[in-house]
Specification:
mainly alpha; 5 helices; 55% helix; 10% strand; globular
Length: 98
């Protein structure tokens, strides 16, 4: 299924496979909980210095927001390039801001 840009979804490539990411309200709540922060300002501050674990938390939430729950659940087992993961997160947030 193609990404729905009106909804804020964006298509990314992770581990050689096309996936959809989307920053939904649920994804944002999952990110806050996963990072142990509260509020958009705290998320923004934390995003400036993400650890690898933090990056996986954020990417998983964005994948779930895009309807890619199974891919999100398998992130720890996947061979995903760091640049791909970082780009997917950046594109997910950029699409939400557009």
């Amino acid at each position: 299924m193609a990404a729905n840009g009106v909804r804020g979804e964006v298509e990314v490539v992770l581990g050689g496979e096309r996936r959809r990411v989307c920053l939904t309200l649920g994804a944002l709540a999952e990110i806050e909980t996963g990072l142990g922060v509260a509020g958009l300002a705290a998320v923004a501050a934390r995003m400036k210095a993400l650890s690898a674990c933090d990056l996986l938390i954020v990417l998983a939430a964005l994948l779930r927001g895009g309807g890619e729950g199974q891919a999100a659940d398998q992130l720890g087992e996947s061979m995903i390039d760091l640049r791909e993961a970082a780009q997917a997160v950046a594109l997910g947030f950029a699409a939400a801001a557009a």
